[in-house]
Specification:
The chain is α+β, with helices and mostly antiparallel strands and 328 residues long. It is 23% helix and 26% strand. It is built from seven helices and 16 strands. The longest helix is centred in the first third of the chain and has 21 residues, at 64-84. Mean pLDDT is 90; it is low at 7-17. The structure holds 2-acetamido-2-deoxy-beta-D-glucopyranose (6 copies). The site of one 2-acetamido-2-deoxy-beta-D-glucopyranose has 3 residues, from loops. Pfam families: CBM49, dCMP_cyt_deam_1. Residues 68-171 form the CMP/dCMP-type deaminase domain.
């Protein structure tokens, strides 16, 4: 009897310490790092990049060997794509580089069976149960559904040919209007490190294969694009004025202090802009507000977003020679 009571007591303690059902009261308990009287929200998704999305590497940024490997593997699924006359094909490689399986979006058994889902289902039927550390290739960038699935499955590298934004906005092909990196950047809900993203591999070939449905509204793929247009030249304008001049040092060098303002004329915020200074190689003696990233490249020294509709950011520098900064 005594043993039974102590066992029950032990189970109760265990239950409490494991925070089992019944002892959580949302009106009195603190939630995570927030106290009970605060409202809970999400932390910025990818603060290490100062933006809301993860970096997507492009083929030009890869080493020649890596680029060649990814292009060969993309060429393989593109060939299957042409052979099966289905646009979306996915392949899965083990961490040791072995091709494990592929999958084709045939619209069967239902419309959720995208290439990624078909490939995972195929691999699973071949006995693969864990996708940790694996690499996934797909002819078209993962949609939000597949990006989420890829996070849940713990893939390490995701590689695609054609971009979502091009599929919907330039090719008029139905798609959820969101970059997959927006979903991937929220990796911290399910894994400790972000997956590596590589986009636009053999893009010329995959884009050409997707073709355009814009002039074919009768196609099952057709959707009238609803897209925002951004100028490819930066909407940031930099104004600078000399505020003060003096002579200094044994050679009586003339120094000038410049005050500069970056103004965003667009109606959208600009994230993480970079700037190039000229003449090349000339560095200010002192600078504030901007951060040098090596060479003539500069980024904003603190909060890396300039809001739209005239939002501005101030910086300044002291130099013996005027330096001009241009937004990239
Ligand atoms: C590579 O990894 C896969 C899956 O883990 C395994 O089935 C295969 O035997 C491995 N191949 C080699 C050459 O190690
Ligand atoms: C599944 O993957 C294997 C290995 O790549 C492939 O031979 C097979 O055709 C795939 N099955 C389907 C239905 O795509
Ligand atoms: C994944 O890769 C990491 C780093 O190479 C390794 O430490 C880990 O054991 C791997 N996990 C699995 C399940 O393959
Ligand atoms: C892709 O096509 C563009 C435009 O035709 C061309 O400038 C570019 O060199 C091509 N890229 C590759 C990798 O073939
Ligand atoms: C001053 O000028 C001399 C000769 O041009 C030069 O060697 C020296 O480095 C200069 N000193 C400074 C502080 O710029
Ligand atoms: C974008 O470019 C168009 C011309 O193509 C121009 O009229 C417009 O002012 C530009 N917008 C910004 C914010 O620079």
């Amino acid at each position: 009897m005594k043993l039974l009571f102590s066992l029950i007591f032990f189970i109760c303690i265990l239950k409490l310490s494991l925070a089992c059902e019944g002892n959580f009261n949302p009106t009195t308990a603190n939630i995570g790092e927030c106290s009970k009287d605060q409202t809970v929200g999400w932390v910025p998704a990818a603060p290490e990049y100062g933006t809301e999305t993860l970096k997507v590497w492009t083929p030009e940024e890869l080493s020649p060997q890596d680029r060649e490997m990814h292009e060969q593997r993309m060429a393989y699924i593109l060939a299957i794509s042409k052979q099966t006359r289905r646009k979306f094909v996915t392949s899965i490689y083990a961490q040791n580089g072995t091709l494990l399986c592929h999958g084709v979006n045939t619209g069967k058994p239902n419309l959720m069976t995208h290439g990624e889902v078909a490939a995972v289902n195929n691999c699973t039927s071949l006995g693969i149960t864990s996708y940790t550390n694996m690499t996934l290739y797909t002819t078209g960038e993962p949609c939000t559904m597949c990006a989420s699935a890829i996070l849940w499955l713990d893939f390490k590298v995701v590689v695609w040919g054609t971009w979502n934004s091009d599929l919907l906005c330039k090719v008029c092909m139905g798609n959820i209007p969101m970059d997959s990196s927006y979903i991937f950047s929220r990796y911290y809900g399910v894994r400790s490190t972000p997956p590596t993203l590589i986009g636009g591999v053999l893009r010329n070939e995959t884009d050409a294969w997707f073709t355009s449905y814009c002039s074919n509204p009768a196609s099952v793929y057709y959707v009238k694009p609803k897209c925002a247009c951004y100028n490819s030249t930066s909407p940031l304008v930099i104004q600078q004025t000399a505020s003060n001049t003096w002579y200094e040092g044994p050679n009586n060098t003339k120094y000038t202090q410049y005050e500069a303002k970056i103004i965003n004329n667009a109606n959208y915020a600009v994230n993480n802009p970079t700037f190039t200074s000229s003449p090349s190689g000339v560095k200010p003696r002192t600078v504030w507000g901007l951060k040098n990233e090596g060479g003539d490249i500069w980024t904003l020294g603190y909060y890396p977003v300039i809001s739209g509709n005239g939002g501005s950011f101030s910086f300044g520098y002291i130099s013996s020679q005027e330096i001009s900064f241009k937004a990239n």
